[in-house]
Structure formats: C-alpha cells, structure tokens
Amino acid sequence: METEEDGDRRMKDKLLRRRVALALAGMLLAGVSVGIFKRAFFGVDPFQCFCGGLANVIPIGFGTLYMLINAALLAVVFFLDRHYIGISTFINLFLLGYVAQYTETGLAALLGEQGLAGRILLLIAAVVLTCIAASLYYTADLGVSAYDAIPLHIADRKPKAFGKVLPFRIIRIVSDLACILIGLALGCIPGVGTVITALFMGPLITFFRKHLSDPLLNGGKTV
Fold this sequence. Notes:
Largest sheet: 2 strands, antiparallel
Shape: globular
Strand content: under 5%
Order of helices and strands: HHHHHHHEEHH
Distance between the termini: 32 Å
Number of domains: 1
Number of strands: 2
Structural class: mainly alpha
Oligomer: single chain
Helix content: over 70%
C-alpha cells in the first residue's frame, strides 16, 4: 500500500522528469531557431549581434569567441545568482552552436535559396520558436543561458522606474537593445529580424510561459 510519503516522492519524480524534458526541448529548439534565423537572412538575435560585433574586433574564430563570451557571462552569473546555472546552461554553452549549425546546413540542403516570401516565413518561425524555447527552459528552472540569466536576475530584484516595478518583458527589451547598440558600434549591422526580436521577445516569452510552458509543467493547469 502506497504511503503519503511514497506518493509525494512519486509526484516529485514526475515533476522533475517534466522539468528535464522542458529544459532539453527548450535548448534544442533554441539551437534550431538560431539556424532558421541564419537561413532567413534578416539578421540574427540581439545577443548574436553583440557577439558578431566583438568578433569584428577580436581576431579569433567565432565558435571559440562565442564560448569565451558565454563563459565570461557565466562567471558573472555565478557570483550574481548561481540559481540560474544548471543543465540547460551547459547544454547552451557546449551544444547549441552545433544544433544551430546542423539546422542551417539541413535547411540549406532541403529548401535551397528562398525568395522574399520564404525568408519572411522563416523569420516568423525563428522568432516564435526562439520565444517558445526560452519559455520552456525558463519554466523548467534547471538553468538558463548565461545571457538570459542576467535580465532574469535583474527582474528578480524588482527594480522600479517612475514608481512602478519593471516587469521582465521591459527589462528584456532593454538588455536586447543594449546588445544591438554595442554590436552596431562594433560594426555588426543588425537586420529587421534583430530589431523584431529585441522588441517582442520579452512579451512573447511571457505569453508562452503563461499559456504553454507553465501548463505543460503543471499537467495542463495554468498558474
């Protein structure tokens, strides 16, 4: 006969499995979305714009530079709030680039060069998948990318402006715009896709967490 303690343990194990599944799905989708962004040729997301700008002034390979930037941000996050470091963080650090690369290569072989309409569809898919991916691994709470952790940490501190607490979506917009401006100053020209993600990722992540990720974690219940 199952005791109350056994039941609690079973529920915790079930919840952990859901969290791991959400984290893995989120990170894989994140890599896929970066590959789609690249095939759309409308510019990359704000953080990639920031990295591209640094790549213009630091003479090492982009793959190595990307890992070094993330490692440096990870060190910052470690001292700010190590709660955000977990399995998702290291999947992002070591595997996301490869998933993005294979996605881009696969789409190039499968679809070839796309016209304007096809590129627009790819851009829409990339933006939506990026936001769904972030909502999944945010909700899983098993770590996020080093860059994502910074606006989340700031939001947790509940900063105020004009007497009101700033919501995460606003903080994310500000951090994304900062990345674009730094990338632009260093010679990386943003595209329309870069601007769209900067303006809409915060609100869309919030939307997908409420209507998709949180219900998935809680067995269909919206919290």
